[in-house]
Each structure stands twice: as structure tokens, then as C-alpha cells.
Specification:
Four copies of one chain form a homotetramer. By secondary structure, chain A is mostly helical. The first copy, chain A, folds into two domains: 343 residues, Fumarase/aspartase (Central domain) (Fumarase C, Chain A, domain 2); 60 residues, Ribonucleotide Reductase Protein R1, domain 1 (Orthogonal Bundle), CATH 1.10.40. Chain A contains 18 helices and four strands. In chain A, a hairpin with a 2-residue loop joins strand 1 and strand 2. Chain A is elongated, with a radius of gyration of 30 Å.
């Protein structure tokens, strides 16, 4: 039980997938220790005067499992950050002379900022994997249901037909755009931070930049032009990419909850969960709901990261600190959402028959535009529109199918025979460039 | 280590004070178990057919320490909430026939919503205590430094004089208004939730309302007019009161960080923390910084709670879930901020001599309005203004004290002698109703 | 066309109702002028030395329509706030000696903060009226459809039956709680602000508090214990009450969009809007959609107001300014949402027949719990549960109505005859305390 | 006066610079009309059956100044968006047959989404120009004050020395990173939207994609793989880039307000504004304050855009609408902040003498680490640390300069002579790689 909260109890919903383990206290502690190990080795190589073996002695001790994270957390209160007690604990574990060279030339913020970048980069691995899995599943559905006509809905009202494949291709584009951006951020943004107390690297003399470059190489992080201790574009950019990803995930999950409604029933989650022994007719879309539970918390956390960018002078009086758990939460929640959504779409069971049945609810009215289009060449745009509008009005008033009314309408039958009326009312004949759009989405997906 | 995150490592900053222990997984679990115990007892009393002794058998088992919160958390994934595995675990610990009467007539949301209210009410206890402590300390400073003149600053520029007591009285008013509102919310808002699956209490027949009333009495919660499962004004109102409290705390902490600046040095934190062995001149205002670290994260979390209010139909598909950890975070962060700020103001060491010295920086210019005011009766408002403005201009240009320039200015000396000029330039003579305002703030404080 | 934005073009959606006119530039300007008029009169009465007639001369000129708000807005850039050019413009319109007594003893923030309170109080009038209208309409529906059975839905899946009246009673409780809180805030929170440059009222000598009290009385505002220029609980509390109100409105609108879905069709908006000549089958729930458009923007604006509370020293360097338009937006958006939602519910056309039809979709499965409840006395809780679960499983597998399966199941027929089975499956017999809850909501409504 | 708000009155602060004119109602209207003109031309070229001259007749009429934006705004209420009355107004202005071909195949969202992209791209022009101007000014200061020593401050306490050039180089990096990202987003993200009612382009038959491609080329927008009506990564990505930019601007402005404090006085804004006739000693940093006023409102608006991404099905019921004004506000506020900050840094007047004077406040204590570093070779790290710590302690206790204590301390004087002690205490000798870092920042700047 940690000092915080209810997370453990709610981990089933909010800590799904493998990213959660990369953002916990141990992971942050390991990130700080990785910083210290890299610093010691780089300092030795830069000729900063470490005794023989000191760097390796330090590095060998930099393993999170040897430390008491909770104690370090408690002791963080005295200085306001956990790097101070971490350095103390590491130093205490080492013999002289190595002990004297721990954290050489660095400041607390160096260790914590670098740890944040390592935590983020590591957590993004499983997040991107789950996003890729979700995208692959969407691509499969988009191809499989390329021609399955379904109601398109605007403002939650049936409008014109689409295919289920097109709907999923839209999901796919969103997911692919988000994960491509997130992968780019992962490559480009995480950078080592080494600046010393005020960003001058003063206590390292002329060696500072060489040490920083060496550390960047060791840790697989970018080497920034300058220490970025008070230039927070990096954590903010990470947060934003996670925010956009959450939005793309939420779009899919929202649609699944709507499709899974008892009255719509065009798709159901096929996983083991969600059944209810007391309500046997329910198939709760648990994965979609959990995705929305996670993603609903993300936008505000992005705002916190952005609001925290105005760091005062050479170290912020609070704004910096407020990034730590917020970034962790963002990674955990987006990671959990990605894991849930992947399960959701991998197990999704679309019901094309039900889609067709739902399309029939309006008795042809949703195809009115299709009929109009066919009458334009003969009647002109306004003429065609007026004829069809009147027919629709009669269909609604008289409670008849539009087809029957059209067959009764001379202005129509003079232009279209019964088969042509049927064709005009067939959803599969009024899909525009649906197929091509799906192909384009799949082609774009193949390139991600 | 729980599934979530870095909280343990950062607990020193973000889980200060006693509220944190009231919002962790154990606390939520105990809240749900308290719900189950109260439900069993109330059902028995309502004549819902429980066998003799079943209610007490259930209640006796409702102790969080007997359960594995982490396991319940993991199992929550299947159904999307921890109430389902909690009920299962409780049932498994009980013999028949009592086991069959666990959770009778209730739904998961009933248990979790009621637990949320219990968690909130319990956590608000130490939060209000720390707020009261902070207010008491402020009242002490306001009285002690009632007449200690200090620079008043607008847009971070010295403007006219205030007293340090007045500044602190302003803090006091904010804290008192916030905690009065928060205490009112604590009294009024937390309510029992019992509605069954869709809020009709159907499986309890006619007994539902009696059971709910009995539970409210047992748990010390309000009895709502209706189940509030999809009417989220209660959690939203709690969140808002916490948000306003965070803002009142942040105001004080921001001022302390500004006062503690090396170049201002009008107050320092007196606690043990904050000293630096490598930078002996620094006295980091750790408590104020930690307060800002906590409060900076609060506004966005309030937004999450407000955005989650649009619950769909009889149970939300995600919005409800997103409240759980968010409410916990709000309580934890505001609790931590209140504990930090209390320490900050209790240990605050104002330096009245430095305040006076800082007032002297502008060589009298900050008292120009005071001189003008004394000249108005003779010269009229515009005339007085013009004379003083010209004197100020000369003082700046010639690098002289305003006093010296005024003594050289016939239009002034014709009205005011040297003593009167000195008096006009004395900050303590241009404080308006400062003393009365402090008295009013203290009187209001005495009534909270 | 003002300097800002696209508001005019989008006013149809986001500036519905009468509140919008109370928050525009003219309204703010009038608020500042009302401050100046009240200040002049109060100063005269306090004996602050105004020449005879000066106060009335000033007050007579304080009419927004005589000023060029756009020019004042542009000139605000020089000082960073519009009070400076407003005072200048007012002064220019006045002859001496009255001109010299404009804004006597006040600072820009006094005028703007007081104007903000006047704007808020005035805008809350129509907002509360529209909320009341919406609540009255809900009360009407709750009574009219008290017994109209409808599907209750959890996670967007049909669960157990409710009545449409119960659903609307839930809306009503949320609206009533929000508007009662908002009305209380309107009574209690808006206060006059008068402090002078740093809150000491120095240039008014001993008269400051008398002037402030007189102004409060003139303007119908509360008189605070102290100037609240850097204690922002008042604007923050206003924002929060608006935020909770938005959430209560959004809940109703969300439900209406879901009920109005083509496949659900349990309610439609009856207003003139929303029809589509090209899609005659659509009845877009425009009012509900517009409500959601407005309310979706509110939570973040509340966060901005809360984040702006940490004002530095005696006047904030930016945070204060960021409140102005944000508070206006909050009032405008919540006002627009209240106007839209009132129209939505006033014109709402529920379709009880469709509700019953939708309840039948699950062929009795949604009533399983009701059957179980009837079997408990004879079979015990676990026995009853197992029998019904097996019957449900068979019904799903064999594609039969639950009724038919139950009639085939000896364990059932030994306890219940055909009529009793029918009764158990009748939604109207499994509504628990629905009627009583509606009555309680209506009774609470009558007291608001 | 438009329907919205107080914007005009506050335009001086919040609508600075040229971006504001690109996001107002007229600009949005022109964006929609540009869409219609491009659609007509592209349709004609694609052979969609437009009569000769119809496309040009339509295009010729597509000028915003011919339309009544306020009326269109009002009429938008009926359908919930301004595209419907815009199309009607455009159609009414045209003779037949051209009138019949307005908006052919398009839906309201196509026009509004495309307009949003045009508005964003156009507004980003002046925003990027002001950001570039600010960066150029920073580069100038970074070079000019490369060697001007100044206090580095952590948690608002003096720590070790920096140079003013280094501080500004940090600002420069943040601005350059933000504007590079924003410029990239401007190139890549704005895309044409054309999908018809549900994204199938059904009424354009096979011509849809050719029309969309032609429109993209005409409008200078990207051509997306699919219509993006419910894939909101584009507007969200725009919002995020603006959010990060706001944070980079806020960092600079925050530092300027702190540097400009009366007691710090290391820099002042040199513009005309900010002087006060009643407080002649004040030089309000109006531009920095206004920057913070604008940027403080941005994070929450980004959150609104991210929260709005979960569009339902083929058109969102509210979330889409909530983007319109929010995106406008983001562009307006970031544009205003960029214009203000550019003025702020272009006119900034640093005071190197004051920086040196402030460095002297701690009587050498802030240079303790420098002394330690020089003693390490002889005394070892721990030995050196202990000696200096003791000297610092004595300096504080005895109220002496550290220099004097060091000269009295044998453990020091045995290693360092008086000149070496002086050198160790000279800030300019303990700047680490400051110069190189500035050079790197300037080199990176030259490449943007």
C-alpha cells in the first residue's frame, strides 16, 4: 500500500497492460539510478578524477530492488524531492572512495528529469505495441466488412448508409495518426538532462558537455542543445502526444458502446468479461467502457502539464514537482486505455445482419438523397428535390414505405422503372467512394 | 508496490498529512465493506427475510484488513469495477445462509458511490483540521504584525505600503472562506447511495426506502430524495469545494515563495527542511513549494469531475469510473497541500526590519500619493497631482530622494513644513483602514 | 465585429437566451460605470469633499451607450486593463470640478472586480429563470409519465425496467440541486470590491469602509470583511456553481440524444428546428446537441478560474486578467445551455409505446431478476438464482421467449402458475419504489 | 457588439497582434465561402454537370463582406451550425442555374471543418512571425549579455551564478522548439474536409475523390487519406502545438515579471506602457503580464479540444460544435501572447550592474561550491566539503563575508592564496560551460 491512494483497488481498470509497471515507484527509482550509473561512467571517461573502479562500483549498486522506495519517498519531504534521499541511500551503500563520487556535478533535477524521460520512453514501448495491435485488428475488420452496409449516423440519427468497414477504417486512421505521432515523439523527445544546480555544469569544469553526451549515448536518450531544466517543451510534447492518442482511442470506444446498445446491437464485445449472471441478456462492453474511463481523465492531465511549463528562473517553485505524478498518470492511463481498446477491437463481433435490419427501420427514407440524385438529370436539382421531398412527406404521413409511394408518383415513374427505384433505394448502390477510402486507409496503415 | 505508479516515491511531497491514509485502497475497501455491513443490518431490520444472525455475521466480516485489496483490484478488470470481486470475496468468507444475503438488493454502484462518500467525509476531517491550524497561525501573524509596515506590491512592483498583518489577514480570509465552505459541503453533501441496478430498488420490494434511511443513519450520511447514481452534483460539489480550497492555499504559498526570495527576504520558512549543505545561504521554502506542487494539479482534476457529470441513462459508460481515482487524488493533494501550508505558516519567520528596508528602496516615490492627498485641500486634486508628479519626475531624473526634492519645491513647502513632509512620506501614516480590516478579518475568523 | 473571434457567427449555438446580453462588452462597461457612479455618491455622502453636484454629475454620465467600448478596449493595451481608459473617457466627458473626483480613492481592479460581480449577478437572473423553466418542464414530464414503463439501461445496455417519469425525476433532482446552489451563490457571493491600490483604502482616509458599505447597498452587492482583490474565492465559487450546473444540464441533454436515436426513438424534440429537407426521416435533437456543445466547454473554463486563484501579493501579474473573459464565457455558455435545455425539455415528445416496445426486445430476459425474486421464498436465494439462470441460458440458446421456457420448467411451474409467471415478467410489477421516488422528487422540487 | 461577450472591451489585452483578425466571424465566414468556391470549381472540372459559368458565378459571390455574419450567426440556431444559413444566403444571392449547384455533394461539417483549417493556417502566419521576432530578440540578448554574470535562482533562491545570456538562451531554446513544432504542424496538419453527409461522398458518385484533391490544391491544404470528420487528430494536434507554444511564452514572461520586481530590478520593459502617473516609481511589466494573462487561459482550452475528440459515429452530437470557438480562442490567445512577448523582449532593458549587485547579496556564500571544487584535489571531496561548510557556517553566524572567513581558515589558506580565494569567489570564474551552451543555442536558432 503506498501513500497515495486507491490505485491498487482500481488497478484492474486503470492499470491494464504492460505500461503500468514501467511508471511505478520502482521504475522511477531505477530511472534515477540509471542516471547515476551513467553519470559515474561518463565522468570517469571524461577524466573527472574518479578513482579506479569507482564508476563501476557505483553502477553496480544502481539497482532499484536494493533500495526501499517507500522510505526514500517519505524522506523526500525534507528536501521536496526524492533525488536527495536516493543519492544519500546510494552513497551509504558504497565504500569510500567511490561513495564520494556519487552524483558528481549533478543536481536533483538532473536525476529526476532524466528518470522521467527514461520512464516515458520505456512505458511508450508497450503503449505503442498495444496501439499497433489495435490498429491491426481494425485493419482486419475494415477489410472483412468492407462491403457490409450499415447505417451512417449524424447527431445519433440515421443519415445515409456507410459500410461497417468504412467506420472501422475511420477508427484506423485516427489510431494510426496518433501512434505515428507518438512513435515520433518517442524517438525525438526524450533527452538526457544534465546541468548542475543552475544549468551551467559549473562543478564539472570543461567536462560537462562531454559527460552529458556520453550519458545520452549510454541511456539511449537525445542530447539536447542546452540543459532543459526550465524549458519544458519535452515533457509537454510527450503529454500532448499522449492526449491525442487518448482521443483517438476514445473515439473507437465511444462508437463501440453505441453500437453495442441493446437496441442497436450491431457489434458486441466477445471477450469473457461483461456477462452478468443476474442479467443474462446483457453483454456489457467492459473493454470499451474501461477505455472511456481511462481516456476521460487524460485531457485535464495534459492541461496540468501545459500549465506547469512556466518554470521560474533556474528551477521552478512547484511547477516542476507537479509534473512527476502527472506524467506517470498520463502514461498509465493511456497505456491502460490502449490495452483495453486492443482487447475490445480484437474481440469485437460485428453483426452485419443487424446492420442491414437497422438500415431498414426508416422504410427507405434514409435513401431519399439517392433517389433525388437519379432524378436530377431529367428534372434538374430543384425539381428532383421537390418531387422526392413530397414523396417522403407522404410516406411519413401515410405510414407507407417510400418505395411504395415512389411507385405511385408519376413524376418518378416517368423517369425510373420499378427496378431502378429499387436500385435507388438499395444502400449498397449509394456508397460513393467507400471502397476506395477503405483501400486508402489500409494502404496508409501498411506504411506506418 | 501497487499497479499504479510513482506515488510511493513521491509521497513525501504529495501525501503529506493524515488525509492520504483515508483515501488509499484500504480506505475505499473499508468504505465498501461499511456499506455492506450497514445494508445487511438495515435489511434485517426492515424485515427483508434475513435468517437470524446473518446480518451480524456479515457485518463482523466487513473489515478491510481481512481482504486482499490488490487481488480485488486485479479481479475488478473482469466486470470493470471492484465491487463485484469485493462482494464475491466477502461472500466466500461467510457460511450459508448468511452468504446468500450479502449485497442484497444492491448494485455495484451503490457500494462504490457510498464508499466514495465515506472516503470523502473521512478524509475531510484531517484536511479541515490542517486548514484550521493554518488559519490559526495566520490569525496569530495578522495580530502580531498588525502594524509592521511592508511594501504592497501590484504586478510585482512596489506600490503603496501595507502592513504584513494586512497581507496575512488577506490570506486568513481566503482560508477561512474556503474551509467554511468545505465544512458545509462535508456536512451536507455526502449521502448514502442505494438504488439497485437501475435506481428503483426493485428487488427490495417496498422496503427499499426504509433500508436506505437506516443505512444513512448508521453511516452518518445524508439520505437523498432519490438515488443519485446518475445525478452527480454531490461528487462534483465536493470536487469544487476542494478546488476553491486549493486556490486559497496556493495564494498563501505563492506569496511566501515571493517573500522568501533572496532579494526580498521578508519572510523565511523556519522548519528543519530546506537548508542545503552545499548552498548554505539558501533557505528553500520547501513547504510553500510543496504546497504549490500539490495545488497546481488540482484545477484540472476538478475539471475531470465536472466533465464526468453527463452520465448516460441509469449508469454511465466510463464517466462514473473516471471519478474514483480522481476524487481520491483531489482529497490527497488538497490534504497534502493543507498539511504543508499549515507547517509553512506555523513556522513562518517574518522579518519586519527587512520589510521597512525594502520600503525604502524607492526613496520615497512609493509615498507620492500620500503627499498628493495632503496637498489636495489647498491645491485641488489636479493641482496637487501635477505638483507631485513633477517632483517625482525630478527625483527620478536627478537621482535624489523625493523628500529632498519636495523640500525644494515651493508649491509644496508653501503648504507643508518639513515635519509634515516627513509625515506624508512615512508609510505608517498612509495605511488607510488597515488596522480595522485586520480586526474585521480576525473577528470573522473567530466566528468560523 | 470585435477583436476576438468567431463568436458572432456561432452565437446561434453559444449565445442562446438572455444571459448573453448581460456579459458582453457593453454589460462590463456598464458594470464599471455603475461602480463609478456608486463610488461618487458614496464618497459625497461620506464627506470626502466632493463639490456640490459633482456626484450626480458623474453618475449621470455613467451610461455605457455614451462610450465607445471598442476604443476603450483598444486603449486598454497601454495599461493592461480597460478601467484606465474608461476612467479617462468618463473624466473627459465631465466638466470641472466634477471631473477631478472621478474614481476617487479607487484602483482599476476595484472597478473591474465590482463590474465582474454585477455582470455575474445580472447574468444569473436569466440563467436561473431558464433553469427553473427546465425544471418545471421536467416536473411535468415526471408526473405525466410516472407509470410509463421504459427500459432502464446501465452501460448503455438494457437492465431492469424503470418508468420514464423516474428517469425525468432524476433529471429534475440534478437541475434542482444545481439551481438551488447557484441561486444561493448569487445571493451570497457577489460583493463590492473597494480597496485602492493595495487594499488599504489609504487615499480615502478613514472614510473607506463607509464608502464601501454605501456602495454595496447601492449596487445590491454584499459587503466583504476585507477587500478581496487577491482572495479569489468569490469568482472561483461562482465558476464552480456554473460548472456543476453545466454538468446537470449535460446529463439531461446526453440522455435526450440517446433516447432520440433512430433505433431507440423513445423521445423526440418537438421544436421547429432539426428537420432536414434532404433527410426527411431525421429529427435532429438540435437543442440537446447545442446544450452539449455549450456544456462541453465549461469544465476547462472552471479549471482556468481555479488555476488563476494564486494571485501574487496585492495584485496578480496575469492571473487576475485571465479571469475576465473566462467568467464571461462561463456565464454565456451556461446561459446558452440552460436556454437550449429548457426548450429541449419543454418541447420533448416522449413515446411511451416505443418504450414498451423496446422493453420487449429482450423477450423477457430483462425481467429475470423479477422471476428470481418470486422464487426465493420457496427455493432460497441460491436455488432460485440457479433455476432462473438456467432458464435464461436456454431461452438464449433456443431463441425462445423466456416466458415459454419458464412455462416448460418444472422447478418454476411448481411454484408459479401461468398468470404468476406473466406477472413476474410484467415490467410494471417490478418497479420497486419508483412511484414514491418520483413523488419525493416532485415534493423537493415544490420547495425549491 | 456580437452575441458573445466582453471580448471587445478586453481586446487590448487578449487580441494583440495580427492573428486576432484571422479568427473572427468574418474570417470563419470567408473560410466557409472559400470552401464553396473551391468546391464549385472542382466539381465543374470533375464533370459533375455544372452549367457553363456556374462555378465562376458561385466563386465570384464568395466574399465575406457581402454577407451579414451576425444574421447567419443568429440563423445558425435552427440547424445548430452556421453552414446551413451560409449556404442559404449564398444560394439566394445567385441566379439560376448556378444557385442549384451551391454546396453540391457537401455537408455542413465539410464547410466548417475546412474553414477551421483555413482559419488556423492563416492565423498561424502572424503567430509564427511574432514568435520569430521574439526569438530574434532573444538571440540578440543572448549574444549581447553572454558574459554578464547574474544570480541563478532555484526555488526563487539565489543558487550559483549564471550569465544573463544563458538565461535568455534558455528562453530562446524553448521558443525555437515550440515554433519549429508549430510551423511543422502548420505545414502538415491543415487538410481539406470533404465527405458528404456520412463521409462516403455518395452524391458525387465516383467524382468525390477528384473533387477533394482539386479542392486541396486550390486551398493550399493537405489531402487526407480519408475524410476526417470524426477523426479529430488534426484539430487536436493544432491545439496541442499552440498549448506548448503558450508554455514557452509563459516561461519567458514569468521570468521577466520576476526580474522586473522592484527589489530585483535586473530588467525592465522599455515600452511606452506601464508607467503610472500616480506611482512614478513603478514600471509595470505590462507586456509580460499580458502575456501571462493570455497564456494562463490556454491549457484548459487544449483540454477542451482533446476532450472533444470522441465524436459519435459519423457526426458528433455536441463535441464537434465545441471545437469551433475553442480553436478560435486558442489562436487568438496564443497570437496575442506572441505579439506581447515579442514586444516584451524586443524592448527589454537588462541591467547588468544590478545583476552583479544582486549576486553580492550573499557575501560570497553563493560561491561556496566553487571554493569546494578548488579544494578537492588537495583535501578530497568530503574533506573539501567539510572545510567549506564550516567556513560558511561561521560566515553566517558571525555576519562576515565568506572571503574574510576563508582567509582566516588555515585549511583553506594552506591550499589557496588570497588571489586564489578571490578567484574562487568570482562568479565569472564559476560558469562552467555557459558560453558554449549559449553558442549552441544560437547555432540551433540559426537553423530554425
Amino acid at each position: 500500500m503506498d501513500g497515495s491512494g486507491a490505485d491498487g483497488l482500481f488497478a484492474g481498470v486503470f492499470a491494464r497492460g504492460a505500461a503500468a509497471a514501467e511508471v511505478d515507484g520502482r521504475a522511477w527509482l531505477q530511472g534515477m539510478l540509471d542516471f547515476e550509473a551513467a553519470l559515474a561512467r561518463a565522468s570517469e571517461r571524461a577524466g573527472a578524477g574518479l578513482p579506479d573502479g569507482a564508476a563501476e562500483a557505483i553502477a553496480a549498486e544502481c539497482r532499484a530492488e536494493r533500495f526501499d522506495a517507500a522510505r526514500i519517498g517519505r524522506e523526500a519531504a525534507a528536501s521536496g524531492n526524492p533525488a536527495v534521499p536516493m543519492v544519500r541511500a546510494l552513497t551509504e551503500r558504497l565504500p569510500e572512495p567511490a561513495a564520494a563520487y556519487v552524483h558528481l556535478g549533478a543536481t536533483s533535477q538532473d536525476a529526476i528529469d532524466t528518470a522521467a524521460m527514461l520512464v516515458a520512453r520505456r512505458a511508450l514501448g508497450p503503449i505503442l505495441a498495444d496501439l499497433a495491435g489495435a490498429a491491426v485488428a481494425c485493419a482486419g475488420h475494415a477489410a472483412a466488412y468492407r462491403d457490409s452496409v450499415a447505417p451512417g449516423r449524424t447527431l445519433l440519427q440515421q443519415a445515409l448508409p456507410v459500410t461497417f468497414g468504412l467506420k472501422v477504417a475511420g477508427w484506423l486512421c485516427g489510431l494510426d495518426e496518433a501512434r505515428r505521432a507518438l512513435a515520433g515523439v518517442r524517438e525525438r523527445v526524450p533527452a538526457v538532462q544534465l546541468g548542475g544546480a543552475v544549468g551551467t555544469l559549473a562543478s564539472l569544469g570543461d567536462d560537462g558537455l562531454a559527460v552529458a553526451a556520453d550519458m545520452a549515448a549510454q541511456l539511449g536518450l537525445a542530447e539536447p542543445a542546452m540543459p532543459w531544466h526550465t524549458n519544458r517543451t519535452r515533457p509537454a510534447t510527450l503529454a500532448c502526444a499522449l492526449g491525442v492518442t487518448a482521443g483517438a482511442l476514445a473515439k473507437v470506444a465511444r462508437d463501440v458502446t453505441l453500437l453495442a446498445q441493446t437496441e442497436v446491437a450491431e457489434a458486441a464485445e466477445g471477450g469473457a468479461g461483461g456477462g452478468s449472471s443476474t442479467m443474462p441478456h446483457k453483454r456489457n462492453p467492459v473493454a470499451a467502457v474501461a477505455t472511456l474511463a481511462c481516456t476521460g481523465r487524460v485531457p485535464a492531465l495534459v492541461a496540468t502539464m501545459l500549465a506547469a511549463m512556466a518554470h521560474e528562473h533556474e528551477r521552478a517553485a512547484g511547477a516542476w514537482h507537479s509534473e512527476w505524478e502527472t506524467l506517470s498518470e498520463l502514461l498509465r492511463l493511456v497505456g491502460s486505455a490502449a490495452a483495453w481498446l486492443r482487447e475490445c477491437v480484437e474481440e469485437l463481433r460485428p453483426d452485419p445482419a443487424r446492420m442491414e435490419a437497422n438500415l431498414a427501420i426508416t422504410d427507405g427514407l434514409s435513401m431519399a438523397e439517392s433517389v433525388t440524385t437519379r432524378l436530377v438529370p431529367a428534372l434538374g436539382r430543384l425539381g428532383a428535390h421537390d418531387v422526392v421531398e413530397e414523396a417522403c412527406r407522404r410516406a411519413v404521413e401515410e405510414g407507407r414505405a417510400l418505395r411504395d409511394v415512389l411507385r405511385d408518383t408519376p413524376a418518378v415513374t416517368e423517369q425510373l422503372d420499378a427496378d431502378e427505384i429499387d436500385a435507388a433505394l438499395a444502400p449498397e448502390h449509394y456508397l460513393g467512394v467507400t471502397g476506395t477510402l477503405i483501400d486508402r486507409a489500409l494502404a496508409a496503415h501498411a506504411e506506418v
